[in-house]
Amino acid sequence: MANMLNEHRLVRALLRKPVDRTPIWIMRQAGRYLPEYRVIRSKVKDFLKLCKTPELACQITLQPLERFPLDAAIIFSDILTIPDAFGLELAFLEGEGPYFQRPICTLEDVEKLPTIDPEIELRYVMDAIRMTKRALKDRVPLIGFAGSPWTIATYMVEGKISKNFTKIKKLMVSEPMILHRLLTHLSTTIVSYLKAQVMAGAEVLMIFDTWGGVLSCADYLDFSLSYMQEIVANLNFELERENAAFAVPSSGGGQVIKKVPIILFTKNVGQNLEALSETGCDAVGIDWTLPLDKARSLVGHKVALQGNLDPAVLYADPDFIQRSVQLVLRQFGKGSGHVFNLGHGIYPDVEPEKVAIMIEAVQSFSTRYTYE
Ligand code: CP3
Q: Domain extents for the chain?
């Protein structure tokens, strides 16, 4: 796959070009359901330390690929690296998830947030990407990612995982301009972070908007979608400008960056799917609450779709898993533009053997759907 013109199956599907079969990768494919991950994790108790050690992040990124014939690697990292780099003192508490010592409360807190150079403060992510890219030898493409501004902001304001998002919603209804300033700062940071990931070797980008679905339609458009739209536009502009610079003969003929597809994923997107598909992104992730035939009729030919098997299906027996995979493939139907995935991250107590069954089912049943 070293040929410059040879596009990977995942990239082709994201750009809605013909493929031989439906590509598959799994959200959270490197993680606790893998015994080999738990071995490393038992030695390094601090999850953030794993992210900040490029050799380990690279090794963990490759673990699922050594076990399964997946169509992509996703760099092992977290969406909270940005607020950690802002100095909010991120910690992961055993059994409780992320926690910030210094959450954002006031306008002053927002104004004090530093401007980040991703090659300095987040250099460990870029080093992990460069290392992984070398190790992959172009076998599969590498996915880089960030959280959406809204989703990162929920953690920065709530300080931890939240049930009702009362702190950030209080800010949203009482001091919307403070929240907009925070979201604007996050957007600018995310553009430079994702651009740096592409320069380091990421070939596909995904933005996780895990909590956009807790907003009303109008608030979703204002506080989540509009910022993702701006990120997509600015990134595409920046990456095209990089390519134009490389195309100038006197610049020494550096490496041209191929089109980098951008996937946007809002969990529980509901009524807002059409709007999400009109942001200029290449693909949207769909969770299992919306069947792909309905999703496809809403987005038409604008974007590719990624998803959407219920992660709980992996608790079932092989026969149930195979039938559920076939249903997802059938619901998408014929033609290009489908990337198989779970509707959200894989659960930590799933048996890896079940994952193998799902992947095999996608590979064997999907060929009949990949032509019109
Ligand atoms: O998909 C992958 O394999 C790449 C790695 C990845 C992680 N986090 C590793 C991780 C990605 C893409 C993320 C994104 C992320 N992080 C999101 C968006 C995810 C989505 O699906 O919508 C969110 C909300 C976070 C924040 C976060 N990180 C939480 C809430 C937690 C704790 C949850 C838990 O299950 O304990 C984390 C920790 C985390 N990030 C783990 C992994 C593998 C578990 C760490 C461990 O205990 O070993």
A: 23-304
Query: Which of 78, 152, 287 has most ligand 1 atoms within 8 Å of its beta carbon, as the pocket-test mutant?
Result: 78
- 145: helix, strand or coil: strand
Query: Which 3 state secondary structure label does DSSP give 45?
Result: coil
Q: Is 54 in the pocket of ligand 1 (CB under 6 A)?
A: no
Q: Are 293 and 328 in contact (CB under 8 A)?
A: no
Q: Which CATH number fits domain 23-304: 3.40.50.410, 3.20.20.210, 3.40.449.10, 2.40.33.20?
A: 3.20.20.210
Q: What is the pLDDT of residues 300-324, one digit of tens each?
A: 999 999 999 999 999 999 999 999 9
Q: Is the CB of 49 under 6 A from ligand 1?
A: no
Using CA atoms, how far apart are residues 83 and 121, in angstroms rounded to an integer? Answer: 11
pTM of the model: 0.96
Q: Quote the ligand 1 centre to 91 CA distance (angstroms).
A: 13
- Our CA angle for 121, 122, 125, nearest 5°, is 160
CA-nearest residue for atom 37, ligand 1, is: 97
Q: Which of 188, 198, 206 is nearest to 117 (CA)?
A: 188
Whole-angstrom distance between the N-terminal and C-terminal Cα of the chain?
26
Q: Which atom of ligand 1 sits closest to the CA of residue 51? A: 9
Stated as kind and residue range, the H or E segment containing 47 is helix 47-52
CA dist., res. 45 & res. 9, Å (int): 36
Note the pLDDT tens digit of each residue in 19-72.
999 999 999 999 999 999 999 999 999 999 999 999 999 999 999 999 999 999
Active site residues: 28, 32, 41, 78, 155
Q: Does residue 44's CB lie within 6 angstroms of at least one atom of ligand 1? A: no
